[in-house]
Design goal:
heterodimer, A: 352 residues, alpha+beta, six-stranded mixed sheet, five-stranded antiparallel sheet, B: 276 residues, mainly alpha, 2 strands
Chain lengths: 352, 276
């Protein structure tokens, strides 16, 4: 049986369905991210697990116990907020010890646990400081320590890195993941940042307008998106209109240029059907070696240097595509306007 | 940098308006103080001596202070949870409550006191019977005290509510509440250990304003027939010349002392340090 399960959870505000029939089962120690654009219902779902919202229908089970209607203060769930939510009138140590004192633990136990948590987040020297004396990253680490101090059954993180600058964000997310793994705590992480979700999660739930679009590992979500929305939302994508030429062999034509796809599900397609094809920019490469399929002529339109990656805009037929290639000091780039041949594997051509 | 360039950088007009403003406030106070000293040139503090020797002064002053304290306590008990709940759960009720809190500015104290007397000078009966539950509140001392504290609470409500509401606006009440809840805190703990400490200076401001209103209030106290400090000062002003000036000056000093205490308690910062 799953450790945490959300069974057909729906949340309505008036007539608006914010979360629709959400189903998820999580194992103990798993790290799951809810990923989606603003207003997709990811935070509302998290808040229902925390107890700040009650589902309109459905149940939430935690370790075999139905917690759907339990008050937030009776759930033993740790929560980290985007705005840190540290108590301004308390020092770092008092903030971390707050939940333990609520549980009426002995003062020496509180002190020991607070020290342990301070060590965990490397803030031993800041115990007596007030939140306003700390940087954003430090405040969020205090918030993490405070949430973990009560030994929660589930750790909920509501866009905890959004208010931080890029460098701190990357280091803190690694820190959060390392601590979560070390403690083996079950965690749900809400974010709209795909890179964050891909880098930190065991599994990702991609959400759109209150519905789950896809659940899978970061690898599955990125490489095998099941819907157009997931393909577009996670990573960059080239989209183009195409026509089915040979359904049995997965041959499509775009502006008269033929592509072969590995997508086998063409049973319901007929010759002449209009479809959308999607190809990730990094799946293209210049045809340096002969390849049987998907070698097409293109014109180089533009080249943009993005640091680690160079983005080359090419035109195939009448459609513009982006093509990404890793940067290196010896990279030989074509001239703008040059006629080149590019290729991509049939697995790279997604028909969604 | 030479003298002239320094002079050009000096914010002359800012200082001029600041000094004019300062004089506007300080000159009447100085005049009152000077007048209070002019009773007997040989004993400059004679007005103060006489005023403090009067038993009525101490009785009415202490009584009004007790009333002010009671009003502050009742106001905090009633207004803090109301403002908190409106911010947290009923933001749509905010306009209605703000309108209600403005009513004391529109309805004069004289109307309020006659309303109170009209309603509470009759006994409380079980509806549609002659069975008496309680005698009229205006008929006994404790009842009158309850009435006057309730009346003062209404008069001070605009100041107290706005102070508390502004204080709550400066801290993220909702997120702090949810953070405390997720850590296991119940409502009592959240209000006493998280909310109140973070709106401390707002509470002190509201309390000071309430104190100032209650201690000097005349209308309610006069019509409800209680011996409060406001009516005492009013009577004194009608019959004496120097003592009222002395007591007015003392009132100013007390107000300034209270403001100084607020600065001391809050360290000059609006809210608890770090509130954002």
């Amino acid at each position: 049986m799953a450790y945490l399960s959300l069974n057909n959870v729906t949340k309505q505000f008036g007539d608006v369905v914010v979360v629709d029939n959400f189903k998820l089962e999580m194992e103990k120690g798993e790290f799951v991210s809810f990923l989606g654009p603003s207003g997709c219902g990811k935070t509302t779902t998290l808040r229902m697990v925390a107890g700040f919202e009650i589902p309109t229908s459905g149940t939430i089970m935690l370790d075999g116990i139905d917690i759907t209607n339990k008050a937030p203060n009776q759930r033993n769930v740790g929560m980290i907020f985007q705005a840190y939510a540290l108590f301004p009138n308390m020092t770092v140590a008092q903030n971390i010890g707050f939940g333990l004192r609520i549980r009426k633990q002995a003062e020496h136990e509180v002190a020991a646990r607070v020290n342990e948590m301070l060590g965990l987040v490397n803030l031993e020297k800041h115990a007596d400081k007030y939140p306003y004396q700390l940087s954003g990253g430090q405040q969020q680490r205090v918030s993490l320590a405070r949430a973990l101090a009560i030994r929660p059954d589930v750790l909920l993180l509501d866009e905890p890195l959004s208010a931080l600058d890029a460098k701190i964000r990357v280091s803190l997310r690694a820190e959060i993941r390392a601590i979560q793994k070390r403690l083996g705590i079950t965690a749900i992480f809400v974010t709209h940042d795909q890179e964050e979700a891909l880098s930190i999660s065991d599994r990702i739930v991609v959400m759109n307008v209150g519905e789950m679009e896809q659940v899978g590992t970061p690898f599955e979500i990125y490489n095998f998106p099941k819907t157009q929305f997931v393909a577009n939302f996670v990573g960059s994508l080239n989209n183009a209109d195409a026509e089915v030429i040979d359904p049995a062999n997965g041959i499509l034509a775009m502006d008269g240029v033929h592509f072969k796809t590995a997508e086998g599900d063409f049973a319901n397609r007929r010759k002449g059907d209009k479809v959308k094809i999607s190809i990730r920019p990094e799946r293209f490469s210049f045809a340096a070696e002969p390849m049987k399929e998907n070698v097409v002529d293109c014109t180089v339109e533009n080249i943009t240097f993005l640091g680690a990656v160079v983005r080359i805009q090419i035109k195939i037929g009448n459609t513009k595509f982006n093509m990404d290639t890793f940067n290196n000091p010896f990279l030989e780039l074509p001239a703008i306007g040059a006629k080149e041949k590019v290729m991509c594997s049939k697995e790279a051509v997604l028909v969604l | 940098m030479n003298f002239w360039s320094r002079l050009r950088r000096f914010p002359f007009w800012s200082w001029l308006w600041f000094i004019i403003g300062g004089l506007y406030f300080i000159l009447p106070l100085l005049a009152t103080f000077e007048f209070s000293l002019s009773w007997d040139p040989e004993i400059p503090l004679k007005a103060y001596q006489r005023a403090f020797e009067d038993n009525d002064f101490w009785e009415t002053f202490i009584y009004s202070n007790v009333l002010a304290l009671a009003t502050i306590i009742v106001s905090i008990i009633l207004i803090v949870p109301t403002a908190y709940w409106i911010r947290l759960r009923l933001p749509e009720a905010r306009r209605i409550v703000e309108f209600i809190t403005l009513m004391p500015f529109v309805v004069p104290a004289i109307i309020l006191v006659f309303g109170l007397i009209r309603i509470y000078s009759s006994p409380f009966n079980v509806p549609f019977t002659d069975i008496r539950l309680m005698q009229p509140l205006t008929n006994f001392k404790a009842g009158t005290n309850i009435l006057i504290v309730a009346g003062y609470m209404v008069l001070a409500m605009p100041y107290m509510y706005r102070s508390v509401d502004t204080g709550m606006r400066t801290v993220d009440i909702r997120t702090l509440t949810e953070a405390a809840q997720s850590l296991g805190a119940n409502w009592y703990t959240i209000i006493t250990r998280v909310i109140l400490p973070n709106i401390r200076s707002a509470l002190l401001s509201g309390a000071l304003l309430t104190f100032a209103i209650v201690v000097g209030e005349v209308t309610l106290a006069s019509f409800l027939g209680v011996d409060a400090f406001g009516p005492y000062l009013f009577l004194l002003g009608q019959h004496r010349a120097y003592e009222p000036a002395a007591l007015s000056f003392v009132s100013f000093l007390l107000t300034w002392l209270a403001m100084g205490l607020i600065q001391l308690f809050t360290g000059g910062q609006g809210q608890a340090a770090g509130a954002h």
